[in-house]
User: Fold this.
Amino acid sequence: MSATPDASRSFRWTWFRHIVQVAAIALFAAPVLIAGWSLFGASVGGDDPLSTPADLPFFGSLSSSSVGGLALLDPFGVLQVIVASKTAPVEWLLAALPIVLVYGLIRGRAFCGWVCPVNLVLEIEDAFRRKLGIEVREAPVPRRAKLWIALGVLALSALTSVPVFEAFSPISALNKGVLFGAVTGLWMLAAIMLAELFWGHRVWCRALCPLGGFYEALGRAGLVNVKLDQEACIHCNACKRSCLADPVILEPVLAGEDAVVRAGDCMACGACIDACPTKALSFGLGRGAKPAETEEPAAEHA
Assistant:
């Protein structure tokens, strides 16, 4: 009788998610290594000609990739280039569309929780900070700020004719740095790590990252959502303490005002599910309806 509960408790979404994050890095690194190149832009030496990673079925970075000859582009990067160049080639839009559809169907900020290398680094730093006993502010900047920062990046890109975020993106600093030795954005990554260590808990991912702001807006339509079993919940707030996005996004379901975590900020990271001692939280498909919306017809009938 106890085998099933024990098996469910042994599985941790956080562990699985970290495996996916590392696998994503390995996926991008594999073509470079298979072609005989070195990571971090290091020279392999020798005079023999080397094959080109771009000739392989998969090659690229988080900004631009090719899968079986199909070009895939970062949609927020495409938006920046469009407003900067004042043109919107159809091929750019088509290359960004599959990414928009995938994260739109799953959850926008699933990218942040499951793929973004910066989030992985900051999670490691967060654990390190806790071991050192360093206390930081929980919410020094409102989480909605990243939406306005994303709009500000687009506005500046239009004014300067330069895709602004790409010039200092810490995501590119990690992704392209590992693959090609690019250093653009490393200074920004260092600044973010210092801010996370001494100023604010998850401040970059929660409140400042413009790409996170873009995916938050997209995440309002996601079908993968955290749901709550109200009868099993003991209101211990362990889920809120573990939330990588922002604890306030859990409040509507904890208060019984909603059936799922509806906020676009949710990364679908599973941290709250892992933290719940009664397993009251789980992943579900579909947005569902708010309790008040489901009760209205009955009230009208009465």
About this structure: The longest strand covers residues 224-228. Residues 57 and 241 are 42 Å apart (CA to CA). Strands lie at 58-60, 64-67, 70-73, 224-228, 281-285.
